[in-house]
Amino acid sequence: MSHHPPDERPIAVEAVTRRFGPTVALDDVSLTVDPGELVGLLGPNGAGKTTLLSLVEGLRRPDRGTVRLFGADPRDPGARVRLGSTPQETGLPPTLRVGEVANFVGSHYPDPVPTAELLATFGLADLARRQTGGLSGGQKRRLAVALAVVGRPDLGLLDEPTTGLDVDARHGLWEALREVHRAGATVVVTSHYLEEIEALAERVVVVDHGHVLADAPLTEILGQVALRRVVIDLAAADVPRLAALAGVVQHDRDANGRHVLLTADADAVVRELVGADIPFRDLEVRSASLEEAFLALTRKEAA
Questions:
Q1: Average pLDDT over every residue of 46-67
Q2: Which pTM was predicted?
């Protein structure tokens, strides 16, 4: 549990339920985030991640339960001045230039990040004079994240920050977010990209259908479902014999037609393959991705 006094906790959500008509977006969710944490909220679209952030931001109220932002009501302007967030939809005045928008938003805060420094961190320096209306979707996304942290917030809430970005831009943005975290901010990132959460987060909260399925350090989440992937090449005639192997949780083919066996005990499966005299080639064993782990978690939950 936390050693911080409750009023210093950036986020305290207790027994929160939120419905939209007949849909239950959040079902009795509790979550606390302490100062300096870097938390990944992981789950499929429609899992309730965006609803959760909107409650913490004070944009919506819970139907039941309590939400506290630095110990205060999230709609209290005093608490919200310590918060920076990216909306999923970025409404920027199209005729303003990138540098002007950064100056304008920064001017609302007592100690903003200087515009040149901010734009450099987010790879936007050469776009300072470009009108925001002329930016690509990915450039707008990077600007939105930059604006979320221009005021040096104590808490940054980033909802799907890299949607629509290519791999290089995504990696650049991760580095920028790590920078913000190193500077002392508490950061919460939502994503359905598992490699994103794996790359950024120290603590992972898995959300699905409005429930928290798991909340643990990244290593533990991976270990909780510590599945290994055993990848082999096999002659077609021998494929039916794989069904007899004990300990294989799932059998798939990858894009190259190789056989992927998910198992909790890779050594045992390899021993079985050898013992059953199934002729395989090109054996490869590695950890399951967070994605595979996540699917196993949600399946376990469904079962």
A1: 94
A2: 0.77
